[in-house]
Task: structure prediction
Amino acid sequence: MLYRKKLISVLILLILVSLFLISCNSNDLSKKEYLAVINDEKIKVEEYKIYLWRIKQLYQSIGQEDIWETKFDGKPAEEVAKERAFDSIKSIKIQVQEGRKMELSFTEEEKEEVVSQTEELINSIGEEEMKNMGLTEQDIKNVVEDTIMSQKVYMETTKDFVGNKSEFEDFFEQNKEMLTQVRVKHILLKTHDLVDGKLVELSKEEQENAKIKAEEALEKARNGEDFDSLVQEYSQDESSLAYNGEYTFMRGQGMDKNFEDASFDLKVNEISDLVKSSYGYHIIKMEEIIEPDKELIELEYYDLMKRNYYNKKLEEWINNATVEINQEVWEEIKIL
Result:
């Protein structure tokens, strides 16, 4: 499962364009009650607030309350959040409209899923917050229905998609090294400490002692002493001690470049020379070289290509849509 997650993240970096989605539905509304008109369909303010609530939770999970004091490309975080929430509701609304053209409807199972997800979202928002936002259960249900309908539109639009085998073979050959993992164990003797997210250089004496200790550990490892025991005796990498110094990773996953290069240069059971990184001196032992699972990658590749195909369709629908924002209402909406 860990391999699958890593694989997906790498493929996404190589290929994928991602979207954040959800939506609404209403028509007979006064000017104060609707936020925008998308293809002649009015969007209720209350339903937009649900999107905005979700964006608010996301932003605060990243930067806590301080996030609202931040600017992105010169724009206040609140304005950026409002725009992102609107992009989401616009995207979903347009997909739902396409679903109507396709005459899609919910199965009994999907209707039950609507009920279940509506209850979950109501519980997540909370009764008090719903009251403050002026939301009803129907508003929540509308958003959930549109989310599930957008998924049906995706399935219907991509049902005849067939992956290109030749393109995959080219992709695999070009990226095989990037998709290979190594499982290594290491011993670290620090020359720098991580303080408040920044590397702080240790004293000259501490750095010299670190090198002496590293050379001592390397000699013992080369003489055949148990590497796990040496990790526990010498290593100062607290985050990996519980795993006997073990890391499994692909190229480009944020490891120190010297550490990464030295790891990928080793053969199974081979022990490196001293490797100097921005953290200190490492002794690395290669445990396993994990070749990419071609069949799994092929499945993931076609799935991502299918999503890319759909995203292009969605982009066309969005570009061809008519969108008019109710500026008076837009200015009145606040996150905090």
Notes: The chain has two domains: 2-164+295-332, 181-290. The chain is about 55% helix and 15% strand.
